[in-house]
Amino acid sequence: xxxxxxxxxxxxxxxxxxxxxxxxxxxxxxxxxxxxxxxxxxxxxxxxxxxxxxxxxxxxxxxxxxxxxxxxxxxxxxxxxxxxxxxxxxxxxxxxxxxxxxxxxxxxxxxxxxxxxxxxxxxxxxxxxxxxxxxxxxxxxxxxxxxxxxxxxxxxxxxxxxxxxxxxxxxxxxxxxxx
Length: 179
Fold this sequence. Notes:
Layout: H1 2-21, H2 25-38, H3 40-47, H4 53-67, H5 71-82, H6 89-103, E1 106-113, H7 120-134, E2 137-144, E3 151-156, E4 159-164, H8 165-177
Helix pairs in contact: 1-6, 2-3, 2-6, 4-5
């Protein structure tokens, strides 16, 4: 829990700095995250304690230079490395994206189900329902979940609507066992 609070503080700070300096921090961190995720060696270098801070910083500077990231993002990443807080970067990135979405007036969420593609009518109804309930534009993406038996699970921020068969069976089981 403490790590999440620290990550949220860093995310808020870097987002506010970006706004002041007119830098799209979310976009730049998305580029960097994509680069890290696409390269296993880079990911290993960044998040394993096998390498020194200087080694990590040298490689990261080269990567950020090729991506042409702004000085505010470069300095932020160097700071995380020097303070040995780079392990928080994935949490910080997620919070930056959430803050950026909120600033732009919308929220992202997921629909999970067993089908290869979401039912278009269901997605449309759910998006409309959540937009009215939350008061913001909602952008939902569909993810196939092979662990579900049937139904859907929708998550937007802290809100989760679970209409899966598995959830219904668990509730029924609890009711039977507790009566």
